[in-house]
Amino acid sequence: MSKKILIVEDHKDSRDVLVALLQYSGYQIAEAGNGLQALEKARSEKPNLIVMDLQLPGMMGIEAAKILKGDESTAHIPIIAYSALINETLKEEALKVGMKSFLDKPASMKSITDTIQKYIS
Description:
This protein is an alpha/beta fold. The chain is built from 5 helices and 5 strands; from the N terminus they run βαβαβαβαβα. It starts with a strand and ends with a helix.
């Protein structure tokens, strides 16, 4: 059975590119366009890994990650930050709430798949 990845990205074009890349790589995909949808999808879809943008409408990615890490039904799911706005302060904050790694937008196909392979179970 293939592993499932939840892609949380508010920009449809960026989400579509990630979805196509990861489906091509053999993963099942669930999608969310904002932080609240991410919480719902993580709980209902039970993904093996989450790739989450940090700049999301309604609820920022770090806030959504903090909630997911505080929920025993989703705390075990690795979360990778995927953002054009990653700086040292954001990295520290993301690590503090339990995110595992960071991908800078735009990321190469190899960088994305290598990072995912490191954390997916």
